Amino acid sequence: MKPTLKFLTIWAIAAFGLATASAQQASDSIAPEAAISLQAKADGKPVEAKNWMVAIANPLAAEVASLVLQQGGSAADAAIAGQAMLGLVEPQSSGLGGGAFLVYRDGSSGALTTLDGRETAPAAATPQLFQNTNGEPLKFFDAVIGGRSVGVPGTPALLAEMHRRWGKIAWKDLLQPAINRARFGFEVSPRLAGLIKSGAERLSQHEATRAYFLPDGQPLQTGDLLRNPEYAKTLSAIAENGILEFYSGTVADGIVNTVRGFTPNPGLMTNSDLISYRVVERDPVCAPYREYSVCGMAPLLRRIDGRTDTWTVAAL
Fold it and tell me: What is the pTM of this model?
């Protein structure tokens, strides 16, 4: 059966490599919920679908993405709505402040596209950014916590580019479910509760994270109702006024002021870094496997001392 655009939802979401400039992302690569994942595989059964399938990290995000497809939206629409929800319900791994990759196959034309929306370093970054005054590498959390490790966000720009190319449903309608959930609250998942507990000491070092994740000085528990009116406010501004609302104006000012003003570990990001951000389209890399062609994100390019090197996604 010839695949339809809806059938390719799993391409848009499962291959949507969402990332944040956080310590959690690095620790996940070392210990990615092994016990939970192995047990789920042991208890689970193969799943099949005739027309489309959503594979995404949280049930609330899966529900939103599924509703978008049922309403006639494209796979890109589903990924946008799902990611907006993920930014709320799994802030340890997703969010507007992070970056993402997209591998997308258009079911109508068969065209395969990869878009690089990963974070970029501020223009003022140097090879010494993560070294101390003696030229020695900083300890991991000394480098990560604070503004120093924050890259220029790419996820919002990537979502907007996806919608421009493949969107069928109005941009603001795709963001509205996450806006509503942020206003009225969601139940903290077991994974989020466990990560808050294990990271409580680091979260308590900053006033905003302390107030959000450790109200009254105690880590949030599984099932607690958590609201995020500030996230709703930011999403609403983007929904009404477009993506430039994020990369310029008051939202951009807030990002830059927070990154550069983080004591004792400020970053280098500027408003110019934000407004200059661009999503890059790259040719996918494909290889044969039996009767299939397996395709993934293209290698990335970077400039080092005037020369161009290539490095793969696996090297990140």
Answer: 0.83
Beta sheet of 280-282, edge-to-edge order = 100-105, 112-117, 280-282
Looking at the chain, the whole-number percentage of residues with pLDDT higher than 70 is 82
CA-based nearest residue to 73, from 186, 155, 162, 180: 162
Nearest to 160 by CA among 244, 78, 65: 244
For Cα atoms 224, 185, 59, give the angle at the middle one, nearest 5 degrees. 80
Sign of the alpha-carbon torsion through 196, 201, 203, 207: positive
d(CA 20, CA 303): 22
- Is there a contact between 192 and 92 (Cβ–Cβ < 8 Å)? yes
139-173: per-residue pLDDT in tens? 999 999 999 999 999 999 999 999 999 999 999 99
The CB-side HSE value for 232 (13 A sphere, CA atoms) comes to 14
Alpha-carbon distances, residue 256 vs 75, 99, 145, 151, 184 (angstroms): 33, 17, 16, 11, 28
Residue 113 CB neighbour total at 10 angstroms: 17
Please state at what angle helix 59-70 crosses helix 75-89, rounded to 10 degrees: 160
Per-residue pLDDT band at 26 (split at 50, 70, 90): very low
Are the C-beta atoms of 186 and 226 separated by less than 8 Å?
A: yes
Q: Decide the pairing of beta strands 292-296 and 225-226.
A: unpaired
In the predicted model, is pLDDT for residue 111 greater than 80?
A: yes
Domain ranges of the chain: 6-122+152-185+227-240+279-315
